[in-house]
Design a protein that fits this description.
With 640 residues, this protein is mostly helical. 67% of the residues lie in helices and 1% in strands.
Length: 640
């Protein structure tokens, strides 16, 4: 991509900021309602269906405005700004991210019983300023039929909400700053493909001819018809159902050793097939290949009768070790760029970097200030200094690795289950050695490591800078819009969720029980059954690291090498468990087109697969919107 001069960037006007704030608020509340009441989970795959749904109609309306009053119509960069602000709001305001902080706040106090001994074992280790002790405030929250907008409720939640909003705003804003440091290396130097944003980017680009493509509407018609039929089947069972959702195949493998590979699922989601088609061919192959390899490994273990310990063969710990190594490789590959960043931080910005959203000096200082604040916050919670530093560093190692998976691999789902610090640090150091205060404090961060990091906001931030460049949008104003989206999304998460649950009662949702009980049950186990370091898990991390190193080295040395370490990291993930068959179909289709045709044939076929994505999201999003508008608690959910 050619370098732009400052006067070539298009300004993002105030009207776009105001509209973006309105849309992100609407989208955040819609997302939280869908997940907390309908269990629709629109944030379990990217791009987010609710965001595509809203930006689709914003785009159509903008086309009409251009014809009537072109001066007030939004430009390409402004529509891109709306898209990223809404994407960030979905990435934060959901039950696999910040919303999960709410049930943790009062669960240990409301559900304490003589049998679970939480009062004696746990209460003393929880920070007062992050928890709710008031019985009446908790009663109305769990039982409902009340209003959050009462003086007692607002004051009861004020300190925890203020504290978590402040911390989470800093936590996610730091990711924006890190994205600035990574932007030039990954977009300009390595020229990664950013597969996930190709379809929404084309849809928002007025010069792409997106809506004039016949293939897009053919793909739209196919996937949209499937979702329409299945939605009608939900209300009228006599209408046939098109089986595209995930289905268990365990019944076909009931005998040993084959049943060791179970559970397994197959699915045929049109939008996943469409997204998979945009993934690089070797990475697409690696994703499904390594998943099937783990199933074969389980069959061989069963067939040979190897006596295993609990957790063996420690797939998640293998992936954790590989992740640490792969992260280190990417730092090493970018060493010249990061050396330049350090030089600019010490000696001041150069003219060469004048077009960055922030100077590297300002960005690095900002990251350091944010990190110091977060360390102070964690220590104040009760963590020891060394544990807080390691814990936070691992958060950002995971964030950067997930971002790399998105911008290089393009897989729409990346849960990272079992690879979080809260799980692996006790395995490495032993829960006995970490101490109860460290363990209790880490449980309060369940919201940041739910085991389902599919909606993680950092990939959207780096993808946003890439989209802004395509739209020639002002990078500084674009960055400001992302930071505004972060802060507002954090605040809206608490206000929207508390308003909803004071009305319907948190006891009506299994989410509050699950996200509330899991960390305290785990903490109870750590206290009553303290463990030494798990040598088996540590060994698995070492093996995973070695395999990850080997895969990265071979890929660097052999241009034909088809196996990628990112595929290995995802091999035992929820994503591959549910979607491997979709990724396999995408790979077969892309391989066949490239084999029989050419790169030109692949590019010609792209609009059809974009249409598959769009049809799923627009018709599926319409069903979800109908459910919210008419308060239909049972509605067809096109995904999951």
């Amino acid at each position: 991509m050619k370098t732009l001069r400052k006067n070539q960037f298009k300004k993002i006007r105030l009207r776009a900021f105001i509209l973006g704030i309105f849309l992100l608020s609407l989208n955040a509340h819609w997302t939280l309602i869908l997940e907390s009441v309908w269990y629709a989970w629109p944030t379990d795959a990217v791009p987010f269906s609710t965001v595509i749904f809203l930006i689709f109609f914003v785009g159509i309306l903008n086309i009409l405005v251009k014809k009537i009053a072109p001066k007030i119509a939004l430009n390409y960069g402004e529509i891109t700004t709306l898209y990223i602000m809404m994407s960030i709001s979905s990435g934060i305001a959901n039950w696999n991210m910040l919303a999960a902080a709410i049930p943790i706040t009062g669960h240990a106090f409301w559900f304490a019983t003589p049998e679970n001994e939480w009062k004696q074992l746990i209460w003393q280790h929880l920070p007062n300023w992050l928890t709710i002790w008031d019985h009446q405030v908790l009663r109305d929250y769990y039982e409902g039929k009340s209003s959050f907008l009462s003086k007692q409720h607002i004051w009861g939640w004020a300190l925890p909400v203020l504290a978590w909003t402040t911390f989470s705003s800093v936590f996610f804003s730091t990711m924006t700053l890190i994205s600035i440091l990574l932007r030039k290396q990954w977009t300009d130097h390595e020229r990664l493909t950013f597969p996930v944003i190709q379809m929404p980017g084309a849809m928002m680009n007025p010069k792409s001819g997106f809506f004039q493509s016949r293939l897009i509407w053919i793909g739209f018609a196919i996937s949209g018809t499937i979702v329409l039929i299945n939605g009608m089947h939900f209300f009228f069972p006599q209408i046939p159902y098109v089986p595209v959702k995930r289905q268990h195949i365990d019944r076909f493998f009931v005998e040993k050793p084959w049943n060791a590979a179970m559970p397994m699922k197959i699915s045929f989601y049109p939008f996943i097939i469409g997204l998979g088609f945009m993934m690089p061919l070797d990475l697409c192959f690696s994703a499904w290949f390594f998943y099937l390899l783990t199933r074969i490994e389980l069959v061989l273990i069963s067939a040979t009768g190897i006596r295993t310990s609990a957790g063996f063969p420690y797939f998640h710990q293998q992936m954790f070790g590989a992740m640490l190594v792969v992260f280190s490789f990417y730092l090493w590959n970018g060493r010249q760029h990061f050396k330049h960043v350090i030089i600019q931080t010490i000696h001041g910005p150069s003219q060469k970097d004048a077009l960055e959203p922030l100077s590297y000096r300002t960005t690095v200082i900002g990251v350091l200030i944010c990190f110091v604040f977060m360390i102070f916050f964690c220590v104040w919670m009760g963590m020891s200094l060394w544990f807080a530093i390691v814990y936070l560093l691992l958060f950002y190692v995971i964030a950067v690795t997930i971002t790399r998976i998105r911008v290089e691999l393009g897989l729409p789902v990346h849960d990272f289950e079992g690879m979080d610090p809260r799980t692996n640090l006790p395995l490495i150091f032993g829960s006995r050695n970490l101490g109860t205060r460290n363990l209790a404090s880490s449980m309060m961060f369940k919201w940041a490591e739910t085991g389902d990091l599919n909606p993680h906001p950092m990939p959207h931030q780096l993808e946003g800078f890439k989209m802004a460049d395509h739209a020639h949008a002002d990078r500084q104003r674009f960055m400001i819009s992302m930071l505004v989206a972060v802060v507002l999304s954090c605040l809206i998460t608490f206000l929207s969720t508390l308003t909803t649950y004071y009305k319907i009662g948190a006891n009506s949702s299994y989410l509050t029980r699950w996200y509330g009980s899991d960390p305290f049950n785990t903490l109870h186990r750590y206290i009553t059954l303290p463990q030494a370091p798990n040598l088996g898990a540590i060994s698995a991390m070492g093996i995973g690291g070695a395999i990850g190193s080997l895969l990265m080295i071979l890929r660097a040395k052999l241009i034909w090498w088809p196996f990628h370490a990112l595929g290995y990291i995802l091999s035992d993930s929820w994503a591959m468990y549910n979607l491997w068959s979709c990724v396999l179909i995408s790979w077969l289709l892309k391989w066949a087109i490239l084999k029989r045709g050419s790169l030109k044939a692949f590019q010609s076929a792209l609009p059809f697969f974009w249409g598959l994505i769009l049809g799923d999201f627009i018709i599926g999003g319409s069903w979800l919107a109908i459910g919210v508008i008419f308060d239909l608690r049972q509605i067809y959910i096109f995904y999951l």
